[in-house]
Specification:
Elements (H helix, E strand, L loop, with lengths): L18 H10 L4 H22 L1 H5 L2 H22 L5 H38 L4 H6 L3 H7 L8 H20 L4 H11 L5 H25 L5 H25 L1 H25 L2
Helix pairs in contact: 1-2, 2-10, 2-11, 4-8, 4-10, 5-7, 5-9, 5-12, 8-9, 8-10, 9-10
Length: about 280
């Protein structure tokens, strides 16, 4: 948001939430809220594609993850966009602040657990006689391990839970979409992924799928204000790719911190919008 593009979550995790201030601009022009949301979805899609390209290397090393969560993302995005044009958005929008806050807290907790796992892994390696020399030679072992794709050999229950959560997030993303990036980061963390850059790349890919299906449906239904959408596209492209590069420049820890800060800011904005609308 604030100069980035659309999906949560943005920068490392706020792209779709960038839709919030843009929706306010459209509503100021007396554009219906649902039409404003649909227009923002279409306008910010190129930015999502640009941001996904910024994480191309990270995404390429996690192809199996793309296959696993792709279908629920596409189906959920289609269902969400269908519901948006047929049901009032007030009830769903009222849930957004609590959903974003929960996802932000979940992401913080996931980071704590990841650091604990990394410390235990380092300690275990140090206790092995054959690994003693390697442990003394470099402290970057944990970081290097973090960069490796986690195993897909998780329990069926864990995978089923993740698929169901991704499906629910995708429905929400097609309908309203605020902070879907943070929610997807939480799901990826639940599955054991710890590399923030890889997480952002996967998040951007799934976000593009969700928004792509929704945008196609909105266009077919004639729910897009094209003059405004075209103007917003230019900014979304620059923000999407630039945000991805900036996240990699500032480093993993600062990128994680940015996700948390943005999550709390978005929560406050959504709460404020709900109070103001009453």
């Amino acid at each position: 948001m604030f100069g980035f593009t659309r999906q949560d979550d943005e920068n490392p995790s706020v792209r779709r939430t960038a839709v919030i201030p843009r929706i306010e601009v459209l509503e100021a022009r007396e554009t219906p809220a649902i039409i404003a949301n649909a227009t923002s979805t279409v306008a910010l899609l190129p930015g999502a594609a640009a941001s996904m390209a910024g994480y191309g290397r990270e995404v390429a090393t996690h192809k199996e993850w793309l296959k696993t969560l792709l279908l629920p993302s596409i189906i959920g995005g289609g269902i969400g966009s269908f519901l948006l044009l047929r049901t009032p958005e007030k009830t769903f929008a009222n849930l957004a602040p609590l959903l974003v806050l929960f996802a932000t807290l979940l992401f913080i907790w996931q980071g704590v657990l990841s650091r604990r796992r990394a410390r235990r892994s380092s300690a275990a390696r140090a206790d092995r006689p054959l690994a003693a020399a390697a442990a003394a030679a470099g402290a970057g072992t944990a970081t290097a391990a973090e960069d490796d794709p986690p195993s897909l050999g998780l329990s069926h229950g864990r995978w089923l839970t993740a698929v169901l959560f991704q499906f629910a997030i995708s429905i929400y993303g097609g309908y309203f979409g605020a902070a879907i990036g943070i929610l997807m980061l939480a799901v990826l963390g639940f599955l054991g992924l710890t590399n923030i850059f890889a997480m952002n790349g996967l998040k951007n890919f799934f976000g593009f799928c969700i928004n792509g299906v929704a945008a196609a449906y909105f266009i077919l239904r004639g729910a897009v204000v094209w003059p405004v959408a075209l103007l917003m596209m230019a900014g979304s492209i620059a923000g999407g790719y630039g945000g991805a590069r900036l996240a990699q420049v500032i480093g993993k820890e600062k990128a994680r911190a940015a996700v948390v800060v943005i999550g709390f800011v978005v929560t406050a904005i959504l709460f404020w919008q709900r109070v103001r609308s009453r």
